[in-house]
Queue: 2 jobs
Job 1
Amino acid sequence: MTAAYERLRAQDAVHIWQGRAPDLLDPQDAAVLSAEELETVRRRAQQVAARYAGAHAALRRILAGYLGVPPEQIELGRQPCPRCADPLHGRPRIDWPPTDLDFNLSRSGALWLVAVAAGHQVGTDIEDGRTVDVEGSSVIVLTGAELAHLRAQPDERRRQEVFLRCWTRKEAVVKASGVGIAADLGSIDVRPATDGPVHVAHTEPNGPYRWLVQSLETEPGVFAALAREAACTGPVRLHAYTRTEATEGACAP
């Protein structure tokens, strides 16, 4: 392991990396992907493929900065789903090298976000603020208290902001737990009126039942959130991704 990993573990921290994937495929990104990832690239349209490759190559370089191995040698897999034990849609994990490093990747258009922690489950979500059907979606995915807070907002813009704050926080929680959108989002109250980290209850088999959830600062019009095990109380450090910094694990102490 590297000094970046040692700092991460010693501080009980979560590192958040944010970047923007290119619209054209970069051969240097393709060079670090696995055969499975390259097959996904080949099956997709040009822009979508380039963004997928860019985000996943960045993820590998970021993980390499903690693990101390070349990014192309990292083997990624999935935990079995905590509900049905299906290994095809559980939480992502590092199969090699052996490590307790945990991570989660979220993408929205060209934007991507990666959360990294040591010894704790994490989940993250990013949304580019595109127009959504707030009225139709909110009655399905919000709790009664969240819905009341949304409807108390003075205009459509503020209602959309509240909805996306709720949505990203909920998505971060269910990604951290490993069940994704199979969860009943309407049963998870993420307290959108509170800016700081909030404790959220959400229980899945064999997993934590309390999560520390917070919205993340990002560029205007973009919404993002982090969920981590409630026992993980260290600092959250945000980093703008550059290829060199990520590969060298140059995280601020």
Job 2
Amino acid sequence: MTSSDTETAERVAAYRAELRTVGRTQRLAGFALVLVGAVLVWAATRAGDLAGTVQLAGYGALAAGWALMLTAIFLRTRYHRRRLRELN
């Protein structure tokens, strides 16, 4: 492998690491909300009189979690496009 290949591989690795940090907070919060929502929907079968409320809260948490995950995807895509434009 030549030195330019090594530099290119190092740059790609550095850029991937940089890209992983974009939207990380939203992605992790969204994942946590999806997990909480799934547990709430599952727990609604055992909630007794509060089953409707717990199920609604679970579906709300699922919706909010997926919205945050989609927001993180949007932020990463926008960042990536902006970086590519800077290179050209």
